[in-house]
Every structure is written in C-alpha cells, then in structure tokens.
Design brief:
- By secondary structure, the chain is mainly alpha-helical.
- It starts with 13 loop residues before the first helix and ends in a 10-residue tail after the last helix.
- It is globular, with a radius of gyration of 19 Å.
- The longest helix is centred in the last third of the chain and has 28 residues.
- Helix content is about 65%, strand content about 0%.
- The N terminus and C terminus are likely disordered.
- The chain is built from 14 helices and no strands.
- Helix 6 packs parallel to helix 14 and helix 13 packs antiparallel against helix 14.
C-alpha cells in the first residue's frame, strides 16, 4: 500500500495515494515494521480521546493562553525526544511546512479550545469530529477526484448529527451557540490542513518541535492583545494543561506522524473514528457531560457518516 498521504489526518482515496512524492529527505528515525508503526500511530487515537476532557479540566485558562502553554510544553517534549534520540539535525522545518503548521495545528487548536469553553463540551467535541468526513469530501473535490453519492450521503448523515447537537434536545436548551460555530470552523481547518499536509511527508517528524514552539509566539501575542492572563490555576486546571501539552497535543502529534509515514494508513484512518466515541464516553464518566440517548445517537451518526463517505466497493472485492 502506498502510504504517501497527509502527515496528520485521515487516509485519502486511492486516486490520491498514487500521486508521486518528492524525493524523501534522510529518514529522521530508524525504519521499523509497518505493524510497529501502526501500533505507535494508534496511540494518538487514545491520546486524542482525552483532548476534550483535558480541555474541560483547564477550566478558566483563556483559549489563546492555553494554546501558548500547551504548544510550549508539547514543543519542548518533542525537542527532548529528538535530543535523546540524537536527531537534533532534523528539527528544522521548511518555511512551507511551518506556515502550514501555523494554519493547521495552531488555528484548529485555538478554535477547539475556544469551542469547548463556550459551548457544552460534548456537543462542541462531536461537531469538531466532523473533520474525518470533511477530509474525504475535500479530497474528492481536488483535481483528479470525483464527488460520489457516498460522499454526499456521508455528509448528510454528519449534518443530521450536527443538527441534533445544536437543536437544544440534549438538555442544554441553548440551541446554536458560538462554541458550535467555532467547533465547525476547527473541523474545517483541521481537514483542509490534513489534506494539504500530505505534500510534506518528507519533512522529519522532529521538526514539529520548532513548528509548535514557533506557533506559541502568535498565541501569546493574541493572548496579550485580547485576554487577561491567569496563572493562579487550581490543581485540576494545571492537570488539564499538562495533560494537553504532554499527551493530546505533544506526544499525539509525533506518534500519529510516525503511523502515517511508516504504518498502515488505511487502518489508522478507520480506527480514528473511535476517537469521538471514546472522548464522549470519557466526558460523561468525568462528569463534564450528561448521558443522553440523543448524545449517543449523534455520536453514532458522525461515525457512520464518515465510514459511509470513506467506504470503497473495492474493499469488498479483494482490491479488484
């Protein structure tokens, strides 16, 4: 299987996996088996399932301040890993990959943090998890692609799930809130970033440390311009910040990048649909969301919509 696809995101249709890649740069890590890389990449799915609960735990921390803090923590973690593995020569990103990181990880993370803090956490989280479905749609609309009926059906199923979430039927009684819109914008940003990032497969994973540390600068600049600094955090809020920086943001980016470049991309793409289910369950168990049959139905619809949109008849014909 050709694994030329985006650095972080969902497996692309076959017509895009055949696009010729640029000559690869020297490998930043020793080669490993596909199975090992796939297992490493799957760790990101587990880490992303804690993203919503850690964001909710961060409590009063303003969104841009939270972006800056977690990106510094994550960037330093990746830098430490690169130093421990003797890979400091590979930490420099290209100007284009850095710009894409500013748009994608920085933009999406800021929108996601703000969404979870301005709308019911479970609702914002599920709307944000429309990004796998959007990736399939965006890839189909690129030159050489084709928008098929399954893409439209999947999109309609995803929209139906979103309508349930913002209808007020979940008990929030608020209807459409700013956080719902921010979550949808975050899904758009992450999906478009993921489709575009497949062109940078040759950029070493270690370069994420410089990209993240660099993205922390505009985050703190926006924080200084629009927010009030808060450093007197509770133990729970500090735990949320550290959980995001070390796990959901820092380590998750690296292990997913390894899985995308050396593992089974299609398998990891399908497995990523477990993240919204797991994250919703964790939110409910942690007390940040109330269990509801509508919440469960919306969660299932988002997963089903993405599966329908990404399904290919060739998978049932032995690749023929």
């Amino acid at each position: 299987m050709d694994q030329h696809t985006q650095t972080i995101g969902f497996a692309l249709p076959a017509c895009y996996r055949d696009h010729p890649r640029q000559p690869p740069a020297p490998s930043p890590a020793p080669l490993m088996t596909s199975r090992t890389a796939t297992l490493i990449g799957a760790i990101a799915i587990l880490l992303w399932s804690t993203l919503a609960v850690f964001t909710a735990m961060s409590g009063r921390v303003p969104p841009f301040q939270l972006v800056g803090m977690t990106f510094v923590i994550g960037g330093l973690l990746i830098l430490a890993i690169a130093a421990a593995r003797g890979q400091l020569a590979h930490i420099r990103p290209t100007p284009a990959s850095f710009a894409l990181g500013l748009y994608g990880p920085f933009g999406d993370t800021a929108l996601y943090y703000a969404a979870v803090k301005t709308a019911p956490a479970a609702e914002a989280n599920l709307i944000h998890y429309l990004w796998p479905l959007l990736i399939v749609l965006f890839a189909a609309l690129l030159p050489g692609g084709k928008l098929r009926l399954r893409h439209v059906v999947g999109a309609l199923i995803g929209l139906a799930a979103t309508a349930l979430l913002v209808s007020g039927g979940l008990g929030s009684g608020q209807g459409l809130a700013l956080g719902h819109v921010l979550a949808a914008l975050g899904a758009f940003v992450w999906a478009s970033y993921s489709v575009a990032s497949r062109r940078f497969a040759a950029v070493p994973s270690e370069s994420l440390c410089i990209t993240m540390l660099g993205c922390a600068i505009p985050a703190f600049a926006c924080h200084a311009a629009f927010e009030t600094t808060l450093w007197s955090l509770t133990a729970v809020e500090w735990a949320g910040v550290m959980g995001l920086g070390l796990g959901s943001i820092g380590l998750a980016f690296v292990v997913w990048d390894i899985g995308m470049k050396q593992g089974d991309v299609a398998l990891l793409g399908v497995a990523s649909y477990a993240a919204p289910v797991l994250s919703t369950i964790i939110l409910v168990l942690a007390g940040y969301a109330q269990p509801s049959w509508l919440l469960a139905v919306s969660c299932v619809l988002i997963v089903v919509g993405a599966l329908v949109a990404s399904w290919s008849p060739r998978q049932n014909r032995g690749g023929g």
